[in-house]
Amino acid sequence: xxxxxxxxxAYWMPFTANRDFKKNPRLITGAKGHYYTAADGSRIxxxxxxxxxxxxxxxxxxxVEAVQQQVASLDYCMAFQMGHEKAFALAERVVGLAxxxxxxxxxxxxxxxxxxxxxxxxxxxxxARGEGxxxxxxxxxxxxxxxxxxxxxxxxxxPNRKVFSANLIPGVDHLRHTLDLExxxxxxxxxxxxxHLADDLERLAQLHDGSNxxxxxxxxxxxxxxxxxxxxxxxxxxxxxxxxxxxxxxxxEVITAFGxxxxxxxxxxxxxxxxxxxxxxxxxxxxxxxxxxxxQKHIHDAIVQGPEHMIELFHGYTYSxxxxxxxxxxxxxxxxDDEGIFExxxxxxxxxxxxxxxxxxxxxxxxxxxxxxxxxxxxAPREGAPGARGLEAHKKCFWDEHxxxxxxxxxxxxxxxxxxxxxxxxxxxxxxxxxxxxxD
Length: 440
Ligand SMILES: Cc1ncc(COP(=O)(O)O)c(C=O)c1O
What we know:
4-stranded mixed beta sheet, alpha/beta, 16% strand, binds pyridoxal-5'-phosphate, 2 domains, Aspartate Aminotransferase, domain 2
């Protein structure tokens, strides 16, 4: 038997500097509302709503109660050829929030699974209509679509792709990303410059012939690469080019759905309607893992046909529509409605934007970006050590200021609660300023 040197050895942590973390673990023992409790008993303010997940706060009593009741009454139900009421009810509820034309919801367990499901649905749709030649998929540089092979292939974050380069799925191209500090630094919400970058899709359609392209997938606001709102007119242009060539438009709304940009979906906020929407995170407020793919009726109907006794789409997960996740999701939808959560997020957006942009003149700050309740303070990298300043700031926030602030390289990302208290939010930014002042 392997003897572990420390109790932290065995768990190989995701997207974490494991060895550095385990030297001095940042451990959480509890959560309530807008705060975590750390192992030493201190209260830690969460500036990231979990991991973009927990917009209404942690351990919301209505969600806790729904989960407790569900796990005690129906803990699991076979997902294939069997069903339970709550999965149907949640699907109906979520479809009801989606833009007109959306009719169906396929449940997954994560954002990564939602993305791979969406890509497969796009391919199945074209094939069902006799256009099986449409196999090419288009993503975008700096896009994050999870870590499974499909999502990684259409994604555009280099370190996530580098090691697996030779095994990425074939037939994928990328649009250029829209982050250009020379033109766009310190824009509030959508930058004015950059809509022309959507013409990359037209170029690819000319190169491959549009009739060979199945789908293009983008995050309406790129999240993980550091909050990159779409330039004014960019998403509209993508939609127009897709329509011209019969290409499906997929919005990856794993972050932007469920109030993060003040509406149920980014599609609604931008007024650009995709054919497929992927979600996860806010679907259950992060309480139980669950994702969902929403599709327009014509996509569902093209695939769901043929002999009635046959499975129409050979795809699904053991935990698709899991009863405990579905119960959590239904309670979350109630909280969104009853507490006017999306309206609260809308009201907070200008306050958040003003506080965030007050960092614009700091000597260590090279850009500030925001959209909805998504924000980024980009610090200048330290000479010869990109990422070091950001990680140090993250650790200082935790140990010195009792704050969780996410860093992506040297960028500090903010994802405040959709029902944040303005005073608490303001105080958290005062602490962030002290940290930025004091890091080397
Ligand atoms: C836009 C987007 N897509 C997909 C994912 C992957 O989600 P998960 O980590 O649940 O697999 C994420 C995660 O942050 C995301 O932001």
